[in-house]
């Protein structure tokens, strides 16, 4: 009880997300190894809209309370439902891009917002 | 906005090059630096008489001896300080002399003693002057504190205007006082030579003793009387401290001023004491001791002497009273010269905040002047402008600094003698100076002990707490500055090192002119990556922004951050920190578009989250924050207004420009 008051908001949010990861049965992002096929879940912390010129791609950052992972859909500039704050389950093969895990063109499942 | 009233009160700002013009000739230096020691003759005799009054009229003849001791002490101190003026032409206050010769601890002790005493000087002299006024006009008595504070403010403003001008303002009362006292002596001499027997009005009042004093008790009483009389010595320090403010040749002028001061105060002190004894002046703490009703307003000893000397020439009596009140208040000015000077030296040596070393618009150490005024005002308010309680805290600091500075001078000459190749004549002069300073050191040290013992129980203990406290504060400030300097020091082979990559992040709330300017500016810096960052506090707004961004083809990636708790600051901070964590060798440049408005209340309506974010990002390492200002019309109008105010003579030209 006391720790609940003394811990920061960020810690509480991370804890909640990690509990959900366990409940859904996904791999925590921190434990993802390079070249491994994983299923992860979390909220999209940031979604980037790329300019029209250049390679079309939709890039987002998935955070599950243990670490962050980039999800990138190549060939598309936007996908309905992929927006900041949204919870998704994504699965694919992990690649390491400058030290950060990335899932390219993952299979994804949008999870309901708000009530569950 | 504040420039106009400030200019009106303090005068036009002076250029640094005009520094020489604020130097003082001797005739102005005397009132500036010496109003304190000169004015103290107005009450030094009375203080001695008051103490002896405790022992009854039979002890009053001891005043001769005490006065002789004080005269001797004053001669020794003046002679000692003359040596200091020559040895330290750059200003040789107790602090400099002791830090040169005796080390840090002694120097800081002297400095804290002096700082405390300067504050006390202001409080004591202002309150004493106001007391003189209220005893002339008793209806003002309930407002003593307010009047005292008013005078402190007046003195502060005068000193903020600058030394030279304040010297002019102070010259009149100071010289007026000296002349008044001498005229009084002339009158007294003339009347006595023509065979009159002059008596003060208090001569027939019988002293009611509080007890008989003999042996040790008598000794203590004599010492206490001596300690009280020593107020005549305060402020001698100011001249040796202020040598740089003199016109050239600085040392010689300062030394001569010191002698003039010594001669003036000695003759006045001796004369007043002789007249007090001849007139049989009786003085006491309370009217009751003189067998008078408690409400009786006893005139000061000087007032009694003046009244008796001038006889029926009453306008001269009132003249002496007026200039006495004036010089007492102005005596505080000695402290106004000493305190800022000392605090600026201390600040330069990093014992006090650096700001105290800055010269203000009028080339005076304005911050020191203001600090002194605040401290003295606080003292006056706390002690309710009661002279009797404040005066007991006084002079300990003076004698601490006297003793330390004289001991330092003894060391100084010793060192000079040891390593100088001067001929016999030069060595002889040095040895003589050393003997003078040694005598000064021993005597002032003795007086310090006497003063401390005789005044400790009467309130001086407050000073013995305040001084060590100040000492520790100064040590702490010094330690802080040294630690910071150590942290900032660079290695010998250190070169400027560019970060490996620079990520520019432009904060965007909506797509408008300031945003575009910030984006354009970010691109012009040629960082490794540029991106726009927005926080989706309200998802609908974020969607709208994304659509607009896309349809306008801004050409810079737009990153939308989620904000589950509807904050702006934290998601941005988190994001920037993640960037830094992943590549610690890179830097992140955060660009914040900001509106600049002309009025403060308009400012409140904007930029609030930007300000908060800036404050937080300041504490994140490796993050540069750039505000990209966008001048709104109200700001431009304000600029035009300020331009008009700055050139009041050519309004047409401004109109054309606008």
UniProtKB/TrEMBL annotation, chain B:
Q: Entry's Pfam families? A: AA_permease_2 (PF13520)
Q: How does it sit in the membrane?
A: Multi-pass membrane protein
Q: What is this protein called in UniProt?
A: APC family permease
Q: What is its main location?
A: membrane
Q: Which domain of life is it from?
A: Bacteria
Keywords for this protein: Membrane, Transmembrane, Transmembrane helix
Q: Where in the cell is it found?
A: Membrane
Give TM regions: 62-81, 102-128, 140-160, 172-193, 213-236, 257-279, 316-342, 363-385, 391-414, 435-453, 459-477
Q: Which range is the signal sequence, renumbered to this chain?
A: none
Q: InterPro entries under this entry?
A: AA/rel_permease1 (IPR002293), APC_K+_Transporter (IPR053153)
Which organism is the protein's source? Streptomyces humicola
């Amino acid at each position: 009880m006391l720790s609940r008051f003394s811990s920061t908001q960020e810690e509480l949010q991370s804890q909640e997300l990690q509990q959900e990861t366990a409940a859904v049965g996904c791999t925590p992002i921190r434990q993802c190894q390079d070249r491994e096929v994983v299923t992860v879940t979390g909220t999209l912390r940031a979604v980037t809209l790329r300019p029209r010129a250049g390679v079309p791609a939709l890039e987002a950052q998935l955070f599950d309370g243990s670490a962050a992972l980039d999800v990138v859909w190549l060939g598309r500039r936007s996908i309905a439902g992929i927006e900041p704050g949204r919870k998704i389950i994504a699965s694919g093969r992990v690649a390491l891009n400058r030290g950060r895990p990335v899932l390219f063109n993952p299979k994804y499942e949008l999870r309901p917002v708000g009530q569950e | 906005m504040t420039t106009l009233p400030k200019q009106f009160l303090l005068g036009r700002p002076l250029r640094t090059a005009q520094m020489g013009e604020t130097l003082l000739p001797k005739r102005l230096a005397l009132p500036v630096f010496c109003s304190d020691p000169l004015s103290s003759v107005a009450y030094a005799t009375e203080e001695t008489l008051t103490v002896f009054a405790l022992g009854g009229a039979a002890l009053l003849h001891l005043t001769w001896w005490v006065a002789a001791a004080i005269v001797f002490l004053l001669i020794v101190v003046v002679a000692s300080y003359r040596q200091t003026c020559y040895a330290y032409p750059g200003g040789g206050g107790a602090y400099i002399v002791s830090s040169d010769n005796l080390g840090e601890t002694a120097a800081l002790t002297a400095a804290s003693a002096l700082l405390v005493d300067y504050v006390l000087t202001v409080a004591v002299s202002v309150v004493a002057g106001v007391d003189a006024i209220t005893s002339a006009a008793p209806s003002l008595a309930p407002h003593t504190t307010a009047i005292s504070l008013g005078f402190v403010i007046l003195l502060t403003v005068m000193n903020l205007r600058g030394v030279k001008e304040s010297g002019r303002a102070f010259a009149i009362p100071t010289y007026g006082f000296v002349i008044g006292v001498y005229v009084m002596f002339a009158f007294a001499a003339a009347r006595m030579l023509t065979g009159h027997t002059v008596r003060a009005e208090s001569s027939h009042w019988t002293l009611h003793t509080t007890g008989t004093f003999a042996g040790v008790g008598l000794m203590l009483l004599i010492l206490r009387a001596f300690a009280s009389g020593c107020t005549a010595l305060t402020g001698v320090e100011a001249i040796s401290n202020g040598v740089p403010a003199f016109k050239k040749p600085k040392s010689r002028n300062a030394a001569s001023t010191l002698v003039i001061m010594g001669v003036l105060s000695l003759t006045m002190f001796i004369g007043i004491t002789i007249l007090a004894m001849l007139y049989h002046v009786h003085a006491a703490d309370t009217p009751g001791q003189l067998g008078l009703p408690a409400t009786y307003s006893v005139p000061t000893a000087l007032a009694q002497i003046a009244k008796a000397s001038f006889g029926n020439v009453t306008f001269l009596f009132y003249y002496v009273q007026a200039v006495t009140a004036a010089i007492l208040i102005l005596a505080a000015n000695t402290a106004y010269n000493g305190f800022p000077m000392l605090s600026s030296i201390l600040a330069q040596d990093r014992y006090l905040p650096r700001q105290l070393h800055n010269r203000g618009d009028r080339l005076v150490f304005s911050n020191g002047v203001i600090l002194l005024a605040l401290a003295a005002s606080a003292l006056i308010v706390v002690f309710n402008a009661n002279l009797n309680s404040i005066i007991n805290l006084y002079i300990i600091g003076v004698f601490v600094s006297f003793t330390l500075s004289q001991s330092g001078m003894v060391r100084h000459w010793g060192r000079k003698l040891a390593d100088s190749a001067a001929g016999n004549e030069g060595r002889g002069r040095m040895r003589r100076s050393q003997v003078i300073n040694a005598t000064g050191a021993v005597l002032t040290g003795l007086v310090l002990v006497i003063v401390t013992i005789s005044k400790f129980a009467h309130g001086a203990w407050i000073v013995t707490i305040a001084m060590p406290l100040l000492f520790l504060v100064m040590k702490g400030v010094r330690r802080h500055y040294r630690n910071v300097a150590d942290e900032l020091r660079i290695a010998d082979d250190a070169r400027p090192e560019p970060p490996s990559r620079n990520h520019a992040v432009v904060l965007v709330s909506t797509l408008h002119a300031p945003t575009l300017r910030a984006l354009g500016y970010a691109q012009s810096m040629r960082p490794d990556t540029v991106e726009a960052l927005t926080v989706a506090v309200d998802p609908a707004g974020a969607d709208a922004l994304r659509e607009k961004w896309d349809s306008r083809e801004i050409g810079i990636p737009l990153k939308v951050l989620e904000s589950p708790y509807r904050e702006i600051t934290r998601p941005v901070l988190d994001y920037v920190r993640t960037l830094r964590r992943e590549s610690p060798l890179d830097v992140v440049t955060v660009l914040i578009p900001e509106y600049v408005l002309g009025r403060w209340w308009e400012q409140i309506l904007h930029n609030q989250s930007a300000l908060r974010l800036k404050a937080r990002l300041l504490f994140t390492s490796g993050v540069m924050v750039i505000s990209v200002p966008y001048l709104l019309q109200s700001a431009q109008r304000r600029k035009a207004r300020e331009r008009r105010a700055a050139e009041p003579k050519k309004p047409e030209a401004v109109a054309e420009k606008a």
